[in-house]
Known about the structure:
homodimer; alpha+beta; Creatine Amidinohydrolase, Chain A, domain 1; Creatine Amidinohydrolase; 2 domains; four-stranded mixed beta sheet; 22 strands
Amino acid sequence: MAKNLSALDSALDSMGVDGFLIDAASSDPDQLYLSGFDAPDAFTTLYANGVHLLVSSLEYGRAKKESDAETVTRTSEYDYYEKIAEYGPEGAENRILVEFLSDRGVESVAVPTRFPVGIADGLRDAGVSVTPEETAVITEIRATKTDEEIEHVRVAQKANEVSMRAAEDLLSAATVENGILHHDGEVLISERVKEEIEVTLLRHGAALDETIVACGSDAADPHNRGSGPLKANEAIIVDIFPRDKASKYHADMTRTFVKGEPSDKIRARYNLTHEAFDAALEAVEPGVTGEEVHDAVCDVYENAGYETLRSDPNTETGFIHSTGHGIGLDVHEYPKVSPAGGELKPGHVITIEPGLYDPEVGGVRIEDLVVVTEDGYENLTDYPIELVVG
Amino acid sequence: MAKNLSALDSALDSMGVDGFLIDAASSDPDQLYLSGFDAPDAFTTLYANGVHLLVSSLEYGRAKKESDAETVTRTSEYDYYEKIAEYGPEGAENRILVEFLSDRGVESVAVPTRFPVGIADGLRDAGVSVTPEETAVITEIRATKTDEEIEHVRVAQKANEVSMRAAEDLLSAATVENGILHHDGEVLISERVKEEIEVTLLRHGAALDETIVACGSDAADPHNRGSGPLKANEAIIVDIFPRDKASKYHADMTRTFVKGEPSDKIRARYNLTHEAFDAALEAVEPGVTGEEVHDAVCDVYENAGYETLRSDPNTETGFIHSTGHGIGLDVHEYPKVSPAGGELKPGHVITIEPGLYDPEVGGVRIEDLVVVTEDGYENLTDYPIELVVG
Lengths: 390, 390
């Protein structure tokens, strides 16, 4: 199953332009998706009767071999060095781009809104029409994954499961002194658990920029990454969202652990969150909207007397975020599983991650990663949902 | 010693504009430098009578606490949600930015050439003049480091030394069977050494996106990251350029190792490269140009009969890259230590990394990291320069 770019064709038709142009490094997921080329520095991708790359000489050989492009052109084919001598590096690159477009009969392009203004000005000065797109078409296309992309996410989630296990094992091996977790004769801090997670991911071909290991009141703020000593009898949220280093696709999973004895309040909130989690999964199937899945979670919480952003948009406790999000080349991408979430379709890969937060009690969250299928969903996550660690 | 932004003031004066505007995440080193704020999503920094941030509500508290800004404004202060309802998210953000600039009396801005065209168009439509800068002023300012920045690089290089030691220890512990390195009963491959480097860096607060462990003919291509089995009696280039996770500053070091007995050719090239390395360091002092340091390396190689890009711009063997580069928030930044390199100044942090390459022989390279001082340089690297591992 190859990439389906028909929505891009339609968008270009309705905008009345000849092509779509990206100038970015592959750290931009739309660039990586359209070009199929992983490169650290910015390069140019033109979509007009197929995908065409314009790259430096340095990247030419690799782009020919590795990219999804029908043609690859190197800047040196356009007298790059002569042009640099005459116009400077930036002037040279703009002139080359104008010639590259002209050679393909392209007189007007749509571009992402974050396309560089310096290049856009250069093209416009040369008579090429440049129109920032109204909606991010490639970002929308990326929401629906091919079987190969789903497999990439699955592989990343497998590494994630091993790293979650390493984190839980560390909590399990810890001892408790004066209510504080200890390991290897030292206080066990959040940073130490994160390091264990990251090292484990590396050993399994994955990496991460950030991870969450947050305890007690830290965990009551969903944006707090967590730091310092971990405490017994309090809820510890472990949320890991790594990227497979080879494929660049992400995974995502959250578990909440208590070392020791959870309070009745924590246990009740955990069990209710598990119920909300099940209700959300129950709702996932093609044709259902992200909003409906989110509503299933809100129903469970609100029926039990908790606030949600649906019942009170200003609440700072209760269920204070979305139910989930799409995931792929970006950690957060379409579709939304929130009040703004549209219709789910087969091939959408989404997280389901309800949670409850209160600085007085702490935070609990449970998150799995699933793919929407023709008749429901498949869970890409294989990790127990248990609160108390041994 | 604080950041010296006087060159930015001069540039804005000579462009006749009211301010400088960046819209980017902190992954853009100029944004991180000017704002002093580390955030994963794009935010706005205005330089006009000081540094002023415009951020989402989500980042407001942290930006107030952590950034270098004199004022921090959140988008919600400009009726963000009302504007979204009326104009959509992008229209709302453009209108807020126009009001934000107007409140500060800013009617014209210079922007980086990679500033987003969608935002530039919105500002221009509202009557704000937007001019892409001709030279990257903040990138130029960043070349000269404060004492605090030099300390960040020093800390990153310390972690790098430990990871280089881990790599060398792995080669040292390897056995040789049929000319191939083995470790723990398995063939020792490049990827395994890279993993050891990365894990060691993580244990010391640093991270990397890529590293080079390249053997034999792989190492003869300076852009080849290396893969597969490592061989005895061949030169193995280990080039590590990590980033300290806390400060975001980089380090850089290269060593070349042979497990077993190097050929006379490899040994001669290594010794000559060591000589070229010493000649380059000998040349480093304020007032000398990057080109002169590069010339010192070329002199040594050419006098010994090797080609350089100076003696033959098209050569594919010999010394086929620059002598070095500046390093800081970016792995490669100003100043250049190459034919295009201008005057070195105290506070410049540069690599010195001569090397010789030939597919028939392999590659050798030696690289240290130094800071230019008032009367010469200080080497920030403490690692032996020895070819043969035990």
